[in-house]
Specification:
With about 120 residues, the protein is α+β, with helices and mostly antiparallel strands. The protein folds into two domains: about 5-45, no CATH class; about 50-110, CPE0013-like (CPE0013-like fold, Roll), CATH 3.10.530.10. It is built from two helices and ten strands. The strands form three sheets. A five-stranded mixed sheet has the order 8-5-6-10-9. The protein has a three-stranded antiparallel sheet with strand order 1-2-3, covered by helices on one side. A two-stranded antiparallel sheet has the order 4-7. The longest helix is centred in the N-terminal third of the chain and has 12 residues, at about 30-45. The structure holds iron/sulfur cluster (SF4).
Length: about 120
């Protein structure tokens, strides 16, 4: 059955139609990037996860973090549970790796902001 999805690669937001029964043919795309996105979104959807974790020893109580590349959507719940279990100790720097290859993906969980200790 043809699936309708919105391309999120750029702000234009094309309404794509993807047909899994016809080699994931994509229509409705205004540029070739929509084809790649439409196929990937149905075959193996992925997302970059952004969140925050607890931090001790700083004026802030939460530190922004993200995965340094997209992870399979099927792993998002597991990864969020890991993120919620993390507590950092200040100071931290942007790009510090908190968890390597999180949940056996290619992505690392990294710090997104410099935070000094108080
Ligand atoms: S298909 Fe191309 S133009 Fe349309 S939203 Fe996706 S990236 Fe943008």
């Amino acid at each position: 059955m043809v699936q309708e999805i919105i391309c999120i690669v750029c702000p234009r937001g094309c309404h794509l139609k993807v047909d899994p029964e016809n080699d994931y043919e994509v229509t409705g795309n205004a540029c070739p990037r929509g084809i790649s996105y439409g196929k990937a979104e149905l075959k193996n959807p992925t997302r970059v996860i952004t969140s925050t974790v607890k931090i001790k020893g700083a004026e802030l109580t939460r530190c922004p973090v993200k995965t340094d590349q997209a992870v399979p959507k099927t792993k998002m719940r597991e990864i969020m549970q890991l993120i919620n279990s993390v507590t950092l100790e200040a100071p931290v720097k942007t790009g510090d790796i908190i968890i390597e290859r999180i949940s056996d993906t290619e992505a690392n969980l990294v710090v997104c902001r410099d935070i000094t200790n108080c």
